[in-house]
Design brief:
Layout lengths: L9 E16 L2 E13 L2 E5 L6 H8 L7 E6 L2 E2 L5 H8 L2 E4 L11 H12 L5 H14 L15 H13 L5 E5 L7 H18 L2 E6 L2 H7 L2 E6 L2 E6 L1 H5 L4 H9 L4
Parallel strand pairs: 3-8, 3-9, 6-7, 7-8
Antiparallel strand pairs: 1-2, 1-4, 4-5, 9-10
Length: 258
């Protein structure tokens, strides 16, 4: 896997700022007072076991869920104060890479990638669409898959196409939901490299939701460990795991990395 540590991060500019965030569902308290920030050009890996609120956090960032309490500021805007039109405009600046890749089975790769452009940019020409599709396919190393159907692709290739489709609108923030889930170790390593290449080439700021320690260690400039509704530790990988805390050690063992 390639070294990502040389990338420049602007610690003077926060693209996401969250303060005192609470979210419950009836009697279930999922997020219990979270503070979180993401700097321009930075990758932060949010680590946590299944059911710890990682996906809830992402949904609040993009305005799919409203917080019970707290401030959520994304690209200079208070997300929970935006109307529908303003929220749509903000979401165009945020790329969301779904765990399932979320490709349309009835469309080939070209059509899947062209769709967000033709839906959101009304005056774009066919040549501009073609150029944009070829650029992102080149970025994810799959230029030869232009006319293939999603069913003809491997799991790793579908992940790559899903990331390409997210990149095509040139988002400022990338949100990755379990990017290595269900992949074999070799394909996982390829996706990890791709996440780092996207950071370098497009200067994105990314939140990588994962329970995979290898992914977190190799993509995150910082790690945020989410356990029991709070960020237990935030920092560089070595600092987070240099701990006698039983919960932290338990998470390390949970990943079967000794």
């Amino acid at each position: 896997m390639e070294n990502f540590q040389q990338h420049s991060i602007n610690t003077d500019e926060q693209v996401i700022s969250i303060k005192g965030l609470y979210k419950s569902f009836e009697d279930l308290n999922v997020l219990k007072g979270i503070d979180f920030n993401l700097f321009k050009g930075e990758n932060v890996a949010v680590l946590g076991k299944s059911g710890t609120g990682k996906s809830v956090l992402i949904k609040i960032i993009v305005g799919l869920l409203k917080p019970d309490r707290g401030e959520v500021n994304v690209l200079g805007q208070a997300v929970d104060k935006l109307n529908y039109k303003e929220l749509d405009a903000l979401r165009l600046r945020i790329g969301f890479s779904f765990q399932s890749s979320a490709l349309y089975d009835s469309m080939n790769v070209y059509q899947n990638l062209a769709f967000p452009l033709t839906m959101n940019l009304k005056n774009i020409s066919k040549n501009e669409v073609k150029d944009a599709v070829e650029e992102v396919l080149d970025a994810v190393g799959l230029k030869d898959k232009l006319n293939q159907m999603p069913s003809d692709l491997s799991g790793g290739q579908r992940k790559r196409i899903g990331i390409a489709r997210t990149l095509i609108l040139k988002p400022e923030i990338m949100l990755y939901d379990e990017p290595t889930s269900g992949l074999d170790p070799i394909t996982s390593a390829e996706i990890i490299d791709l996440i780092n290449q996207v950071q370098q080439k497009y200067n994105t700021s990314s939140v990588i939701i994962t329970h995979d320690l290898t992914c977190a260690k190799n993509t995150g400039n910082r790690i945020a460990m989410l356990l029991n509704g709070i960020f237990l530790k935030v920092g560089k990988f070595e600092d987070v795991f240099d701990s006698d805390d039983e919960q932290v050690k338990g998470f390390f063992n949970y990943n079967f990395i000794q």
